[in-house]
Specification:
By secondary structure, the protein is α+β, with helices and mostly antiparallel strands. It has four helices and four strands; from the N terminus they run E-H-E-E-H-E-H-H. A four-stranded antiparallel β-sheet has the order 2-3-1-4.
Length: 105
């Protein structure tokens, strides 16, 4: 995960930067399969953007962000754990809502 302290950052700037990360990740992966962009998170009140990706090393992650010209403070290794509901292969919350939705006329 790339952590960026980015004063005045907007959602559009994060979206644009995310596209650059996706393109850089794709270009690097075409060579050696070392990274994959997963998305971003914006915390506007703290002026922080987080760019999430899988990479074979912290160096590979840093290279993706350098190529994408992302103003990152640091690259962090993170561990994502699935919820018990995902492991049980249950429908996501949004899917449950859609299937249980009643129509009112």
């Amino acid at each position: 995960m790339a952590e960026c302290f980015w004063p005045g950052v907007s959602a559009q700037q994060v979206a644009d930067a995310g596209e650059r990360v996706r393109q850089a990740s794709y270009a690097i992966s075409a060579d050696d399969g070392s990274s994959r962009y997963l998305g971003s998170i914006l915390v506007p009140t703290d002026e922080i953007a987080l760019f999430l990706f899988e990479a074979t090393s912290l160096e590979a992650a840093s290279e993706v962000n350098r190529r994408a010209e992302i103003p990152f403070e640091r690259i962090l290794e993170v561990v994502r754990r699935e919820s018990p509901w995902q492991k049980a292969n249950l429908l996501p919350v949004g899917e449950r809502r859609r299937t249980n939705r009643k129509e009112y006329r």
